[in-house]
Amino acid sequence: MLALGAATGSASAQTVPPPRAVPVVFYSPPVEGIIIDPFRPPAHPGAPGNRGLEYATRPGSAVRAAAAGIVTFAGQVGSGRHVTVAHADGVRTSYSFLRSVAVRTGQSVGSGGVLGTAGASLHFGARIAEAYVDPAVLLGIGGPARLVPLVGRGVTGWFRAGGSPWHRIAGGLGPPARR
Q: Is the pTM of this model over 0.85?
């Protein structure tokens, strides 16, 4: 009905543009390091929290772009050095408290391109418009656990014959390392 009204020039007909395709972007961790402080959204804009992931890093190690994009900010804010990269899917990632900055505003960077070097830690943030989002979601880490039934896969009870539960998790890679 809507298309017919638009075709006949009806004054009451409204046309809606088709949805814009959003490119798929794959993200990688910006540094090799352990997350020492996870995303903790504040209760309200002025409340305490952590609007990103805090990594323990080796000072001087490379900080890399989590995905390809355009550098929208590279410089100092207060006493810290920061870089922000805009990605094709509308996400902006930020890399904060750098020891040095190796890019400039307006520069294109590839996925894994060096943005600068780390200090003792790196804060990695992500925003969509003005809303902070958990960067762990972009990286495919964290999130709720999901149990998958093993019925019909030759598994008897909790264990395969002669195996441990770790053989059915992660393709038999063994138990997770103890920390």
A: no
